[in-house]
Amino acid sequence: MEYLWVFLIGGLVCMLGEILIITTKITSARILVTFVLIGVILQAFNLFQPISEFAKAGINVPIIGFGASLAKGAMNAVESSGLLGAFVGGLEATAGGIAAAVIFAFIFSLISRSKTK
Amino acid sequence: MKNEKINEAYNSYVEARIPKTKAWPSLFNSFWVGGLICLIGQGINDLIIYIFPSMSQQSAWAWTLIILIFLASLLTGLGVYDKIGKFAGGGSIVPITGFSNSIASPAIEYKHEGIIYGTCVKMFSIAGPVIVTGIVASIVVGIIYFIIGLF
């Protein structure tokens, strides 16, 4: 049952992206930016946590989750270390994902041949 | 005046040439592919917690995302993810795997321009704006949160 909700909510979020693509013809970079900002805003108003408890991966795997952990990291770090936390917290919370994306992209670009057109 | 006419002609030409995405099938495909990617993420997460019961939920999520990012980079390297992208559109862009693909894809494509000016520079051509806006927004939220906390 839990898995059904993950599938349905995750699917709906992705479909929302597809609706944006079809209606406004925006590029994938803008889609990603839009969804990251949605995540930041949801977290800023403390709305992300209740959705996440219910939807789990359905909301955490979409890039909305990345935006939410940026904002959540900043807010938590402000609580523990004051104003400095606003600057440190966001990247700290998302460092794993960014670093993983960079290192794997780097490795696979070394291994695979670039397609000449 | 003449330029405007040329622009108009050009725009209508471009309009005619843009590949038309059929709305309903693409919505359906983005829905089930996106849902499936989230489902795989949940599966990986549950498996990690099953194997390492003492791991905190936060660390388990971090590992889940790293594994998803690894898989997406691998599929991008094999040229599979771009095919999924053509088929599923938003379903492959919106999940974190799409973020990973947006880094790996140009990194591989521009490899022939050299490791520094090709791979390293082009790596962030799409992900750069995402990370920049994300960081800016999170700092703004953090500062506002700090100011609210003062009262």
Structure report:
The complex is a heterodimer of chains A (117) and B (151). With 117 residues, chain A is mainly alpha-helical. Chain A has one domain (2-111). Chain A has helices spanning 2-24, 28-44, 48-55, 57-60, 64-81, 83-111. The longest helix of chain A has 29 residues, at 83-111. The radius of gyration of chain A is 17 Å and the shape is globular. The model of chain A has no long low-confidence stretch (mean pLDDT 93). By secondary structure, chain B is mainly α. Chain B has a domain at 30-126. Chain B is built from eight helices and no strands. The longest helix of chain B is centred in the first third of the chain and has 29 residues, at 23-51. The termini of chain B are far apart. Classes of the chains: A mainly alpha (117), B mainly alpha (151).
Summarize it:
The complex is a heterodimer of chains A (117) and B (151). Chain A has 117 residues and is an all-alpha fold. Chain A has 6 helices and no strands.
